[in-house]
Amino acid sequence: MYAPWGKAWLDRVVAALVLVLGAPVFALLALAVLLALGRPILFRQSRAGRHGAPFMLLKFRSMREGSGSDAVRLGRFGRWLRASGLDELPQMINILRGEMSLVGPRPLPCDYTPLFSATEARRLWVTPGLFGLAQAEGRNAVPWAHRLVCDVQYAQQAPEFTTDLKLAMACAALLLRGHGATMPGYATSARFADSLVPGAAPTLTGRNS
Fold first, then answer.
1. 28-42 pLDDT, tens per residue?
2. Are 92 and 19 in contact (CB under 8 A)?
3. For position 197, what pLDDT does the model report?
């Protein structure tokens, strides 16, 4: 019962509760972003949902507007916000809309989709999530090759409540410790396209499969 309808039902119930009960936290975070970075408070970006359908992902903004490197634009407040994972809270709205799930492969920018191999594209078989197998293994610190292996592994298995619960708890533990917010050598994470240059780590089955 969990796979056909229970997962989606649980997603919406939890998202609604978080939005209602966490309203004071949302208000404080919005005020903090406004004071630290100004407007806009929310970051919006088109991401690939289930079967590649685009949707507008929501996050609290963590970077200053303008030019410059990610490291410069991120700043101290932005680094704290990302490490805590609190910047992702507005995605409860995406979950309530049915665009995301609590657990599933993280939604990636739409321009990544054409770069996936046929095997890697299987990550799009399921609704993307706030938490995922790759995030449970280290969030952004996980190299792209292994991240996609984890995503496909999750997408090819029937959803189970106990598995999703364990993944959510593992991700929550990383968030509480502030681990994995960045990839080594980057202010945030390397773009997927950067992993496709000659000499980069191989992906699941090569680019033409």
1. 999 999 999 999 999
2. yes
3. 55
Residues contacting 151, CB < 8 A, separation 6+: 105, 106, 120, 123, 132, 133, 134
* Token output for 177: 């410790």
| Bridge partners, residue 59, by sequence | 43
Which pairing describes strands 101-103 and 129-131: parallel, antiparallel, or unpaired? parallel
| Measured distance CA(115)–CA(148) in Å, rounded | 12
189 torsion bin: left (phi>0), alpha (psi -120 to 50), beta (else): beta
- Residue bearing tokens 């359908």: 53
Give the largest Cα separation in the chain, rounded. 49
Write out pLDDT tens, residues 47-83. Answer: 999 999 999 999 999 998 877 777 778 889 999 999 8
d(CA 120, CA 148): 6
132-174 residue pLDDT tens: 999 999 888 888 999 999 999 999 999 999 999 999 999 999 8
Q: Identify the burial level of 152 via C-beta atoms within 10 angstroms of its C-beta, where 0-12 means exposed, 13-18 middle and 19 or more buried.
A: buried
Helix axes 70-84, 23-37, angle to 10 degrees: 160
Given a contact cutoff of 8 angstroms between Cβ atoms, the answer to whether 19 and 58 are in contact is: no
Q: Is the peptide bond before 40 cis (omega within 30 degrees of 0)?
A: yes
Which residue bears the tokens 């952004």?
140
pTM metric for this prediction = 0.89
Output the pLDDT for position 162. 96
